[in-house]
């Protein structure tokens, strides 16, 4: 399998969507079908929404993508819906692209779109949903993870008329949202698969790195209180910080073995990211994690949980040992630490189902009714 994956890598192309850029290598086995299921896109508008801070917006638009169709049992409950949640600064587009959808959603695959109804939202502050860069800039409400999960819930129940989920999958920030979902709406889903996160507050190095990136932007005179005409120079620092956060030292060393190659890659990465990244959106996206702490209420999660981290994840380093302890608070919780191997891609391993799909298969079997 390792040989097949290496052959499928396209010249070590790294993608980091929007800001934090969810970093992952394009990995597709040659046997994966190139034809993907049909994707439907839409927008759901929530009026007069009040955030936890008390700030309000007359309208919040949530963009979403769906694949497949919902099925209901005799009681009218949706039985086949799967919610897939993206990470900080990202959006749902990558989940309907070949490296993800081509491994999970095609006929005969684990989440075959002929059997499942896949729902992929862009969170508030991200993608094509309402965000600071739309016009309010630094006057945008200071949303947090509770707001984001509440908006996801409203999209499902009021917008898409989905009253139950077969599964919630989340990567990075979406991983953390999965735990918030499990505590806030414990009867709404059958299973949770959080990938690449922890259940403790974002503190220590994780918080420090985020603050460095935020401060680099807002302390830049070019930021101008969020009313800049061109992206402030501090955005370069933030992009560089996130490249370090999301990447794998082993793979970067292999892909860029000389100083000149590494410097050229960083320059190109910054240039590419600046074309699609807004500084205010970056600041808000990372501030949204400020009060995340599901640890005290993990016992409220009723459903089977398959939490997965990887041994080379800079954001959630295994030496913390927190997930091994925290997962014991969840009655049906299971934690897997993917061991170091050539298949891993640091934090971005969460977006490579070729690496972890066997654990998804186990979770689906364990949570079947």
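-> sequence recovered:
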């Amino acid at each position: 399998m390792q040989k097949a994956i290496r052959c499928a890598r396209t010249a070590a192309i790294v993608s980091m969507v929007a800001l934090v850029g969810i970093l992952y290598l394009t990995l597709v086995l040659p046997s994966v079908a190139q034809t993907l299921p049909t994707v439907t896109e839409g927008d759901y508008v929530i009026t007069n929404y009040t955030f936890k801070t008390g700030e309000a917006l007359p309208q919040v638009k949530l963009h979403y993508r769906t694949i497949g169709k919902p099925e209901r049992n005799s009681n009218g409950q949706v039985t086949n819906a799967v919610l897939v949640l993206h990470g900080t600064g990202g959006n749902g587009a990558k989940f309907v692209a070949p490296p993800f959808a081509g491994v999970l959603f095609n006929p005969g695959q684990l989440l075959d779109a002929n059997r499942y109804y896949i729902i992929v939202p862009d969170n508030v502050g991200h993608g094509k949903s309402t965000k600071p860069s739309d016009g309010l800039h630094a006057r945008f409400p200071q949303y947090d993870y509770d707001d984001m999960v509440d908006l996801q819930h409203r999209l499902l129940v009021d917008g898409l008329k989905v009253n139950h989920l077969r599964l919630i999958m989340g990567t990075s920030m979406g991983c953390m949202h999965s735990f918030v979902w499990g505590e806030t709406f414990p009867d709404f889903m059958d299973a949770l698969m959080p990938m690449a996160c922890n259940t403790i507050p974002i503190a220590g190095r994780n918080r420090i790195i985020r603050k460095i990136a935020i401060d680099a932007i807002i302390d830049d005179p070019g930021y101008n209180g969020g009313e800049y005409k061109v992206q402030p120079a501090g955005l370069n620092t933030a992009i560089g910080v996130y490249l370090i956060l999301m990447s794998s030292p082993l793979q970067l060393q292999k892909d860029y073995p000389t100083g000149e190659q590494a410097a050229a890659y960083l320059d190109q990465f910054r240039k590419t990211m600046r074309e699609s990244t807004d500084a205010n959106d970056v600041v808000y996206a990372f501030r949204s994690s400020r009060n995340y702490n599901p640890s005290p209420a993990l016992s409220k999660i009723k459903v089977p949980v398959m939490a997965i981290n990887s041994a080379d994840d800079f954001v959630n380093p295994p030496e913390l040992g927190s997930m091994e302890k925290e997962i014991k608070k969840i009655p049906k919780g299971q934690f897997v630490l993917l061991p170091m191997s050539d298949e891993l891609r640091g934090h971005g391993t969460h977006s490579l189902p070729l690496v972890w799909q066997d654990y998804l298969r186990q979770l689906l079997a364990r949570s079947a009714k």
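The chain has one domain: 2-366.
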